[in-house]
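During the reporting period the student researcher (J.K.) took over the structure-prediction task from the postdoctoral fellow and processed the backlog of single-chain submissions. One of the processed entries is reproduced below for the supervisory committee.
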Amino acid sequence: MDQETDRQSILDTPMSPAASMTADATIAIIAEEGFDRVSVRSVAARLGVAPGTVQYRSPSRRTLLTDALVRSVQRQGGRVLSHEVDPAQPETLVRALAELLPTGAVQREDAAAWVAFGAAASTRPWLADPYWEALQVMRTWVEGVLADARKAGRMRADLPPAEGARLVTAVVNGLTLDLLNAPPTETDEVIGQLRSGLGLILRGL
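J.K. obtained the following structure tokens:
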């Protein structure tokens, strides 16, 4: 979802298999137990290794959390980009963005982590920068899709793509928060809610 840039995006930060496993364990702890439960010891217990092994890869709690944010964004980006989005067919965008909602086990983990990171970033500048970068990368990608959708006659004529992208991310973030706290919801219903939200911006849904 990255555009051309003079610096590396958070989505492109390389992670070794060991670092990815550590980050995945951290994400799972955040999703199941909460942001404040993350520590070298809790991650080590999750992985079934000695704390020193985790500390060697991630020397501090801050590193654990930053790596988990990067990894979660990469996982979400990979799922979204696995869909072939056709700007002339808005339903394809619905299906791609549905990957960001809690529609499955991994999606729910990432959704819970994203909400937790968003709340934590408001008081932690070291998290705020990568969180904001990830949000901007997402918005830039959506803006590009909307610009092409406008050319195809599928977007509201009175709404600039940049404003539309902000609305799309607001819909996705709002649904994510609501669905995480709601009783279990069928995947088709979740996608239907997303479709209704995007239908305020795009034609043909």
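The committee noted the following: The first helix runs from residue 17 to 33.
J.K. will present the remaining backlog at the next meeting.
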